[in-house]
Amino acid sequence: MTILASLVFGVSVVSVNRLIRMSSEQRLERGRDLVQRELARWAEEPDTGDGPARFTVLGLRGGTTLDPAVPGAPIPIRSGISSEADRALSTLAAVAKRDRAEVGSLDVDEGTLFLGARRRADGRLLWAAYTVSMSKLVANWRLIAGLLTSATVLLGVIALGTVIAATRGARGLKRSLAALEEDLTAEVPRPAIAELSSVAEGVASLAASLAAAEREHERLAEELARKERLAALGRVVAGVAHEVKNPLASIKLRVDMARTSEGVPADVVAELDAVDEEITRLDRLLTDFLVVSGRRIGRRVDTELRDVVERRLGLLATWAKERGVSLAVTGRARAVVDPDACARAVDNLVKNGVEASPAGAEVRVRIERREGLSVLTVEDDGPGVPEDRVSELFEPFFTTKPEGTGLGLAVSRAIAVASGGRLSYLREGGVTRFELSVPAEGGAA
What we know:
The chain is α+β, with helices and mostly antiparallel strands and 445 residues long. It is built from 8 helices and 12 strands. Helix content is 55%, strand content 18%. It comes from Polyangium jinanense. Keywords: ATP-binding, Coiled coil, Kinase, Membrane, Nucleotide-binding, Phosphoprotein, Transferase, Transmembrane, Transmembrane helix, Two-component regulatory system.
């Protein structure tokens, strides 16, 4: 727009200058014609002798005189006209004829002075002088032309600055696009030109969207890989469960029968009890594998979460006390869950909190309703999970402890997902927080 305005102003200046020139030329031509016309008219009038003549045009002076070649007959043109005009009129008088007037011009302070001379039939010389001055209109036009010229120059400078700024902005955008090819999070500078700034804003917004899409793609790829691993694990677990669970159940049955038989020594009963505990542990491990691999949990029903938590904390209190850690629960809410599966998730989360807490600390369980969900939060004052390993937190067999299977959090997450909820990890102000969110009361599933 600035360049277009400069062109328009330039054309306007040229047009005004042309009008001024045409107007000046027309006025000069009229002045010359006036002198010739008056001399022709006067040549037809009776002789009035030497001296000024009476002219009908305001500002025109003239008169008659003898031939300048005759001694003592100077041309009487003194008033208001310089000696240079006298010499010019004398020159014209020398060549003046009767059939036409000789007209010349002379630049003076007031404008252009037209001088004319013509012979009468009696030999006398007619002379006339008329000054064409610069009118106020022409002066105003020239003022306008000057202003337009200044405006054109100013607009040209602005246009040049705009072009330079646009060129620099375009180069900056080009460099930004090259940087975005390597890194979608690269900064996109905003040029000073409004139009280019809008383009840069659009590019930055598009880059941010692409970066978000790329992160989402990576997340989905990781999720797909995890699900593929779990699917493969599920197929293995299904085979293992089939091959192990039935024999394990048979072993448990035989151990129970042997333990309850008459005449079995007490020390043998104690050993059989230990074997039964190990069988139970193996059975629970197989169940955890099935849950992690995506096998369905038990039937979900309306359950009071506070009751589930209090039962599990009662069983874990002695174990936690031995480690110098206390347990506490607050709040109350109902949820649609499998009570047994929920109890396993609570066990895993509380045990993790106790094992991570220093002596004298407290593991806190808080139950609340939040946005249509029942949220069970387990907090501890332990060191948390290293930031570079948070992405692995809910993967099967992930652990930061020297002992354990690394299935606790994976099982808890699988239970949350199977219940229609989620399990999340937060670390704020030195506090580690796991939030188990499940559907609130409202019907069995």
